[in-house]
Amino acid sequence: DSGVTQTPKHLITATGQRVTLRCSPRSGDLSVYWYQQSLDQGLQFLIQYYNGEERAKGNILERFSAQQFPDLHSELNLSSLELGDSALYFCASSPTGDPNYGYTFGSGTRLTVV
Amino acid sequence: GQQLNQSPQSMFIQEGEDVSMNCTSSSIFNTWLWYKQDPGEGPVLLIALYKAGELTSNGRLTAQFGITRKDSFLNISASIPSDVGIYFCAGSQGAQKLVFGQGTRLTINP
Asked: Nearest to residue A84, comparing CAs of A66, A107, A58, A61?
């Protein structure tokens, strides 16, 4: 158990729908990162939050949005889902947002859009 | 943005063989990290490197921070079945996020 909790573990939904993925960072970590991993692909950075504020944005689609709440948990909202959005979505956390000590990843949410 | 090129993309080896993989970039990095992702799980940090030329071991794993600061290498000695997975390199330039390579998928034939 890495200490980063992601729910749900699996999600199956239809095209056009909207889903919310949830992440609780490791205790004491202030920064949260979201990554997308499609089949046989690498980790695509989506967005980073630090202590409730957006800090960095990657290749995140306009249909996707995220936020970090005062209790530091984060949610990734995916709307108008398309088949190509099927992927593993990982949340990671770090204590201060300093990347030099690495991130701790959760086990991921596997999203299947049918 | 910055890109890390990992090679090989995949490896098929026999149990007991040694493994070598590398990660290169056109940019200089201050930190190199190596992660392993088991099937169905999130990546787990294996080794962190902070100085050019640094050689660091973690059991049968050895990683090196390239002298040019533009590359890093990971070696696994005497591979065993549980070494199967995807190995990712990641680099930091002191900016706000890590840059990840595309991964090397390791398959081991018993």
From this structure: A61
